[in-house]
Amino acid sequence: MTTYQQFQEGISSDEIEEKLKFVKQTTQVAKELGKAETISSLLPFLHDWCPDNDDEALTELAKEIYNLRELFTPDEMKNVLPILKHLATAEEVVVREAAVESINKIVEDMSPEVVRDEMVVVIEELFHDEWFTPRVSSVSLIARAYSKIASLPASDAEPSLKTLRDDFFALCKDDTPMVRRAAAKNMPSIYAVCADSFSGAFVAQFAEFFAADDDTPKLTLMSFTKELLQRVTEEADRTKVLDIFRSNLGARSYKLREASALEVGAIAAILKTEKFSELLLEPYLALFKDNYMEVRKNAIKQISALATCLEQSVFLEKIFTFLAPLAAETNPVIT
User: Which UniProt keywords apply (predicted)?
Assistant: First the structure.
């Protein structure tokens, strides 16, 4: 029996420990087979082996596949994408996340041309899947692929970049909450690789998330507020972002107040004294009297940052006066 035959038998075992042992030998077997036979035989075998297998074994395979870079060049790693794409559709979160992580690491090493030609197809197929789990994976692959493709000349890159942007904004509006939440989670990384000219579209989607009933994307995106303010130049868009943030300082949900309180110092540093005093100072000061201890605690954490970015007169008049009452708090978490 050849090494490859032993591998095929071992990886098909009913015993999970035996199966895992052979999954970890995938790269070694591939090296013995060589590139041609790995592409023609081993990879198709593994692709057919994946359905209905143990989540633990699938997770291990998703990680092990990346090690085939020891055999293939970065661009030849396109040959493993079908297996990883299949694993990225799995029901089990850890399997999907392992597959997405391996794909993103592969993309990082690929040439922009190959990423454009291979990855957009992978993302599109996941995006158009009827089941929601592939769509969750697709949004986690956009940023890395977009960044690589964007390094190409505009005429070569823009059609693919537009496809990825369109996919992302469609996923933000997906019917399934888990997909929308994944889109919100990935919004900062995708915005980071997009040109400033698309800021308006991101602000509009940001506002749409905060206008919805689901608080999970709002909590995810609260820290994204400062990233928008650092880049957005259109006054109407900046006003929209600040209005959203101000409303969350006084939101009915204490979780939103708690999350927004943590961002006050960083946002004050961006706005400087006059704008912060005009728009956010009073809502911020109200947090010191909040009924929820965690909200008060997060508001207090911002005092040091505000002392460095606000004019001394404003800080002493408006904020310093709260320090004595806060010091008198009986709760040790506050004091």
Answer: Repeat
